């Protein structure tokens, strides 16, 4: 079993020109649930002036149906964590960017300071019974510094491991990783944090998303973020496409014999719906050509 | 060293609405050479009423510059072989389709009959000093029959191995393969034909092209077909995209530490040129976003 975490309501929507209504966002979450997914990243509790597309985070969170789906939300600091918990969120994804320049620009802290913020959120999470995942962003390359050397990554991974979170994710934020990077860096993560559940967050910017997903699953990664239709993108990487498309991952993983619990036909249907709502083309390929055999 | 065989002048052009002039085709071959590629599949000697885009095969072949590049051409029968050799071609790619239905529709023979045609071409090739490669088309799935069972594939691979060609290629003609398929079927091929140089021909229809290329290289495949810009498509698979893009393979393979001899910047430049000439969007991703680090 390989888990797909549907992140279209968060990462998918935060960089699109068109902002969906709260009602449409809730419909997207419900449609995601109908694909068979068990966890959805529903929004981000960040500054509304920075990410106006998700300014209704609390309204979305408060209106989520109680249907057995795990809902997570991205938070970047303690203030965001508090807002999320007040809105009923029981799982947060936190972010440590692997390069100082990117970290300073994205959240106004160095990487090391971000680790301390995450440690405080983890402490509160234990008190509140809130699950805390940590994403190491730009694990494979930085839009400002370029290469993130293996030694740098290893230091960040060790610091993150020390926080002892419920899950650690490596994010290819700007879509530069290749399979050998995935294998090496998850290997380093496993050395730093033996036994921690590992997750990966991939962008298909350079057509390596599916190859990296396969490498991740074969490296013992248990959960893969994906977006219906491959929507989204990175504001720091012009021309970048979004997350690897849910439907493309489902096709590949199922034909390789991995179960995801998702239904390919449903994923394609809802990928078409969300790209239609956003007025963007399907970035994933399965929605254009359909599965095989038909 | 992993060899990339540039097939855009053949597979890339044969399914596009717009037909390039002979002059533009020759420019495409020259531009391909400037990427650093050592082998180009320049045209196909097939019936001009079936593939009007390549009706000028002989004119193209006769005008090829003598610059150290290896030129190959696709032929489907002895008549095509003769035309190719008369036009100066010294390497042919022949085709055995793994399913009878597809073979009958594409070239009017059963799979078994196609093997005999290829055997005769091989015999003549030895006499003429012409290199003969065999492609097993639809190795991973057929547009008419659906799944190509492993047992069926193994039988075809054994028959093809018996012809003792200079190279055997497995083609994912309709773009349905996943990495485990690549590993299994090249494993079977290697058992049938130990030591034969192996080549793969991938379409990126379902976003598995790069993942399959990585699996192929790791399975001992020495040559990968690719098209600048990812141009092309399969007339039997509506909505299908073309070959895996040369520039996308170059990016991934180089970052994984494999040398191809190609220059990524040049591949992107010429991918833009050919898609511009054809009036189609870039199917590959690197031409939109550029390499990394920049």
Automatic annotation (TrEMBL), chains A, B:
Gene3D superfamilies: Aldolase class I (3.20.20.70)
Tree of life domain: Bacteria
A Pfam family annotated for this UniProt entry: HMGL-like
CDD domains linked: DRE_TIM_HMGL
Any single GO BP term: ketone body biosynthetic process
Matching InterPro entries: Aldolase_TIM, HMGL, PYR_CT
Entry annotated with the keyword Lipid metabolism: no
Keywords: Lyase, Metal-binding
Residue ranges constituting the Pyruvate carboxyltransferase domain according to the UniProt record: 2-268
GO molecular function, one term: metal ion binding
Annotated family: Belongs to the HMG-CoA lyase family.
NCBIfam families noted in UniProt: PRK05692.1
Protein name: Hydroxymethylglutaryl-CoA lyase
């Amino acid at each position: 079993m390989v888990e797909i975490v549907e992140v279209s309501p968060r990462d998918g929507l935060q960089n699109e020109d068109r902002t969906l209504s709260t009602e449409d966002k809730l419909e997207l979450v419900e449609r995601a649930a109908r694909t068979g997914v068990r966890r959805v990243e529903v929004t981000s509790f960040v500054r509304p002036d920075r990410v106006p597309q998700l300014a209704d985070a609390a309204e979305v969170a408060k209106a989520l149906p109680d249907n057995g789906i795990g809902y997570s939300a991205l938070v970047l600091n303690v203030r965001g964590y508090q807002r999320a918990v007040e809105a009923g969120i029981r799982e947060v994804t936190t972010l440590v960017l692997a390069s100082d320049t990117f970290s300073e620009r994205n959240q106004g802290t160095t990487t090391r300071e971000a680790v301390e913020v995450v440690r405080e959120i983890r402490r509160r999470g234990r008190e509140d019974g809130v699950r805390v995942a940590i994403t190491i962003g730009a694990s494979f390359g930085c839009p400002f510094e370029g290469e993130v050397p293996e030694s740098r990554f290893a230091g960040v991974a060790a610091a993150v491991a020390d926080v002892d979170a419920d899950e650690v994710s490596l994010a290819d934020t700007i879509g530069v990783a290749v399979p050998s990077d995935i294998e090496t860096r998850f290997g380093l993560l496993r050395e730093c944090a033996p036994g921690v559940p590992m997750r990966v967050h991939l962008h298909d910017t350079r057509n390596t998303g599916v190859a990296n997903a396969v490498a991740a699953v074969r490296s013992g990664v248990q959960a893969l973020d994906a977006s219906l239709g491959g929507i989204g993108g990175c504001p720091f990487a012009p021309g970048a496409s979004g997350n690897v498309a849910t439907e493309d991952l489902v096709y590949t993983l199922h034909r390789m014999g991995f179960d995801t619990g998702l239904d390919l036909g449903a994923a394609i249907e809802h990928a078409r719906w969300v790209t239609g709502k956003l007025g963007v083309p399907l970035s994933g390929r399965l929605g254009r050509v359909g599965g095989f055999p038909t």
